[in-house]
Amino acid sequence: MPTSPSEYVGNIRDTVKSFWHGMSITLSQVLRRPITVQYPDRTSVPVQDLLPARYRGFLEVDAAICTGCQACERACPISCIQILLEKDAANPKQRVVSQFDIDEAKCMFCGLCVEPCPTGAIQHTREFEATQRSIRNLVFRWADPLHPFPVYKVQKDAPYFPRAPLGSLVREILSRRSWDANGPAYLPPEPLKPPPPPAPKPAAAAKPPAPAGAKPAAAATPAPKPAAAAAPPSADKPADPPPSPGSGEPKP
Amino acid sequence: MPSKFSFAFPRPNTRRILFFSSLAAVFVIPVALFGLLVVYLPFIQKDVFFTFVRETLHRDPDSWAGTQWLYGAALLVAGLLLFTFASVSGGIFSWYERRVAGRIQSRIGPNRVGAGGFFQWVADAVKLLFKEDLVPAEADSLLFRAAPYFVVAGMTLTLVALPFGQSVIVADLNVGIFYILAVTSLIVVGILLSGWSSNSKWALFGGMRSAAQVISYEVPSGLAIMTPVLMAGTLSMQGIIRAQGGWPWQWFISRNPAAFVAFFILFISQLAEANRTPFDLPEAESELVAGYMSEYSGFRFALYFLVEWANLWIISAIAVSLFLGGWQVPGLEDQDWAALRGAGSFPPVAWWFWQLLSVGVFAAKTMVLVTVVIWIRWTLPRIRVDQMMNLCWKYLVPAGFGAMLFTLLWQIAVSKARIVQDISGGVLFVLFVYAVFRFFVLTRKNISRVVGDRVDLTNW
Amino acid sequence: MSKLVLRRIDRNNEEMLVNFGPQHPSTHGVLNFLVETDGEVMRRAIPDIGYLHRSLEKIGEIVGYPGYMPYTDRIDYLAAMFANEGYAIAVEKLIKVEVPKRAQYLRAISCELNRIASHLVSIGTMATDIGAVTPLVYALREREAINDLIEALCGARLTYNYHRIGGVAFDMPEGWRDKVLHFLERFESLIQEWDRLITWNEIYLKRLGGVAVITREQAIDYGLVGPNLRGSGVDWDVRRDVPYGAYPDFKFDVPVGRGWAGTVGDAFDRYYVRVLEMAQSCRIARQALEKLPDGETMAKVPRRIKPEAGEVMSRVESARGELAYYVVSDGTERAYRVRARTGSFLAMGIIEDISSGLMIADLIALIASLDVVAPETDR
Amino acid sequence: MTTNEIHERLRAQFGDAVGPLSEPKVDPFATVQAARIVEVCRWLKDTPGVEIDFCEDLTAVDWPKRNAIEIVYHLFSYKHRHGIVLKVEADRAKPVVPTLEGVWKAANWMEREVYDLFGVTFSGHPDLRRVMLPDDWVGHPLRKDYQEAGGFHGIPNLRENPLVELRRLDEVRLAEEAKRNPPPPPPAPAAPKAPAAAPPAASGGGAPPAPQNPPPAPKA
Question: What is the ipTM of this complex?
Answer without folding.
Answer: 0.84
